[in-house]
Backbone:
């Protein structure tokens, strides 16, 4: 069994080198289409390992598109760094609202906690990461309490932390891609992660933002609320990344966001 200390040292080394050419090598066992309740997830596990931390990923796609297969180099990267990697599927809009989607993310986390040993993972060391709509859902699920037992969140670039603020900086209305999934204004408070920032004092969050329109202002507004309520926030200025590349660059050789993520993870799991 790989110890916590070994995992942290491996992650710290990776953060320092930001290279995929390190000595650890793991052949992944992949199990796809695992039912966790209302939807499916895929799990990538380093063969012959046990007790590993778990990185769970929630894909983006404007709440209406995308799928759990859109993971890029992440499974290979995190497996080689000593993690079980799980990619979460969820029912898409209009079949499911954002609230229902967040509840499904919570179901997926519960499944991984209950079955962690089967996949070689540690149920008490789960990091939840999401990009774009997936960032919104991962953050909403964790802060609202749907996803229980998460050790930290990687909130990778969304405009939907606070739907009222998003409308404010957009001239009073939501941008087009948000308009349909969030058309019910009376539910904006429930669907905004910022509503729940007081519930999880001390929760570690890694919060990068891209160079997309108003992303710096939107993220700063969210971080301010988190800090007022005692959250442990690590911001990351990713303005040199596009909204797409801030996701696809993760795991790339020499990528500074990847290095920062691994540093956050090593500190969170220490």
Residues:
């Amino acid at each position: 069994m790989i110890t916590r200390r070994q995992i942290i040292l491996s992650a710290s080394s990776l953060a320092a080198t930001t290279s995929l050419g390190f000595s650890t090598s793991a052949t992944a066992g992949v199990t796809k289409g695992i039912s966790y309740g209302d939807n499916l997830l895929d799990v990538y596990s380093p063969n012959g390992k046990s007790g590993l931390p778990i990185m769970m990923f929630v894909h983006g796609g404007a709440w209406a598109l995308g799928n759990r297969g859109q993971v890029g180099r992440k499974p290979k990267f995190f497996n080689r760094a000593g993690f079980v990697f799980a990619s979460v599927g969820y029912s898409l809009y209009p079949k499911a609202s954002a609230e229902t989607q967040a509840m499904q993310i919570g179901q997926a986390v519960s499944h991984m906690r209950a079955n962690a040993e089967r996949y070689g993972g540690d149920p008490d060391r789960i990091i939840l990461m999401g990009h774009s709509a997936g960032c919104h859902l991962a953050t909403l699920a964790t802060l609202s309490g749907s996803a229980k037992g998460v050790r930290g969140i990687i909130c990778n670039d969304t405009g939907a932390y606070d739907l009222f603020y998003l409308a404010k900086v957009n001239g009073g209305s939501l941008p087009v891609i948000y308009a349909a999934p969030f058309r019910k204004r009376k539910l904006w408070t429930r669907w905004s992660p910022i509503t729940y920032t007081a519930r999880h004092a001390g929760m570690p969050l890694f919060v990068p933002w891209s160079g997309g329109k108003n992303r710096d202002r939107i993220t700063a507004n969210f971080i301010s609320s988190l800090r007022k309520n005692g959250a442990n926030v690590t911001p990351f200025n990713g303005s040199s990344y596009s909204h797409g590349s801030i996701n696809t660059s993760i795991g790339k050789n020499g990528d500074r966001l990847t290095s920062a993520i691994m540093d956050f993870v090593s500190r969170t799991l220490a």
User: Anything to note?
Assistant: The two ends are 17 Å apart (CA to CA). Residues 4-269 form a domain with the Rossmann fold fold (CATH 3.40.50.1820). The chain has one domain: 4-269.
